[in-house]
Write a structure and sequence with these properties.
Layout lengths: L2 H11 L3 H8 L2 H7 L8 H13 L3 E6 L7 H21 L3 E5 L10 H17 L4 E3 L7 H13 L5 E6 L5 H10 L3 E5 L14 H22 L13 E4 L3 H14 L6 E6 L4 H9 L4 E7 L4 H10 L1 H13 L1
Parallel strand pairs: 1-2, 1-8, 2-3, 3-4, 4-5, 5-6, 6-7, 7-8
Helix pairs in contact: 1-12, 3-13, 5-6, 9-10, 12-13
The protein binds flavin-adenine dinucleotide.
């Protein structure tokens, strides 16, 4: 099976309920998934963040969950996110939170999602923290950007969004966000999208990543950019990738344009390229690791398998060895 077919297989199966039920209950699957997931509880995640902070790395906690099917589940997920924000401030770790709007009800009722989001943003404001809205599949992009604009207009400044380099529309979205001085995390994109909406070839996605990054760096050069504050509030630009070529390009562009490293940070996922995380810290760059935790790890795990065929092999051999 080619890498593209494998990718689409795992992304399709990430949405299949019976596969979710079977795999989520399987201890061996959890053993492999736990390479990418900090644990099932908030306490597990806090311990991981402490360890990261000890290595000079900041974190973003992600309470796993998406496409919530009932209002009650959306409210429960909101409470869990509030608990994470509260815990960060209580124990004094360097972390903010990343949330998925479909977890707090975006697909059920946009008004419900906005109300849940407002509770989260109030709590983050009270504890001087920051909330990043992860970007989900292309059907959510307009709604996510609209809620981000709403949040900014409502006076919540410590919020940010994600732009996916695989989408053709991203260049325009970045221009609109720069008018708002929006904080952006740039990633390649983790979902299955049609060639009408997204670059189908990895090479094209990589090229667009560099292109969008150049534009954002030029924006920082002109405006001075937005530096981060403490461990919680990130700078205006987050470069989210484990791809050494993209990272090298970003560093080269920043040096060429004289952009201060205070105005950007690198972000990576828990369990991936720890060596590169430490290397960037040693070079004096800010690094933040995305730390997912909770019981709803199945779709997140499937997307991580989709990204790298070697992970699938690792999973399959572990699955059948026991
Ligand atoms: C902090 C962070 C936040 C993100 N938020 C979002 C989001 O909100 N929305 C969204 O759509 N996507 C998000 N992503 C995922 C992103 O879109 C990509 O799917 C993912 O990062 C893989 O792409 P890459 O840039 O690492 O490049 P690739 O070219 O995919 O990978 C480069 C190298 O990184 C390593 N690597 C990458 N993935 C894996 C893996 N799964 N397992 C083991 N090694 C791996 C390998 O060494 C690989 O050669 C996020 C990624 C990061 C790092």
């Amino acid at each position: 099976m080619g890498a593209n077919m494998l990718r689409s297989f795992f992304i399709q199966i990430s949405k299949v309920k019976w596969a979710q039920r079977t795999i989520s209950r399987n201890k061996l699957a959890w053993r492999v998934a736990s390479r990418f997931v900090a644990g099932e509880t908030l306490a597990d995640a806090v311990q991981v963040v402490r360890d990261l902070n000890g290595r000079g790395i900041k974190a973003s906690l992600d309470h796993l969950g998406e496409n919530t099917a009932s209002r009650e589940d959306a409210t429960r997920a909101t409470e869990d996110i509030l608990a994470a924000i509260n815990q960060i401030s209580q124990v004094g770790i360097q972390s903010n939170v990343s949330i998925k709007l479909t977890q707090v009800g975006l697909l059920l009722d946009e008004e419900l999602a906005r109300q849940n989001l407002a509770r989260i943003l109030e709590s983050a404001r009270e504890t001087h923290n920051f909330v990043r809205f992860d970007m989900e599949d292309s059907s959510c992009v307009d709604k996510t950007l609209a809620l981000h604009s709403w949040a900014r207009q409502a006076g919540f400044n410590d919020v940010g969004v994600v732009i996916q380099a695989y989408l053709y529309r991203s260049e325009q979205d970045i221009q609109a966000l720069s008018q708002l001085s929006g904080k952006v995390r740039l990633c390649k994109g983790a979902y299955q999208e049609s060639p009408q909406l997204a670059f189908p070839l990895k090479k094209e996605v990589d090229q667009n990543y560099d292109h969008l990054l150049d534009q954002m760096m030029e924006g920082i050069q002109q405006t001075g950019g937005l530096p981060g504050r403490g461990g919680q509030i990130p700078p205006g630009l987050a470069i989210a990738t484990h791809d050494p070529a993209r990272i090298a390009h970003a560093i080269q562009t920043a040096n060429r344009l004289g952009v201060s490293p205070e105005t950007f940070e690198f972000q990576m996922l828990y369990g991936i390229r720890r060596d590169l995380q430490d290397q960037l810290v040693a070079q004096g760059y800010a690094v933040r690791v995305y730390v997912p935790y909770g019981t709803h790890w199945y779709p997140y795990f499937m997307r991580r398998l989709a990204e790298r065929p070697a992970n699938v092999w690792f999973f399959v051999t572990n699955f059948f060895r026991h």
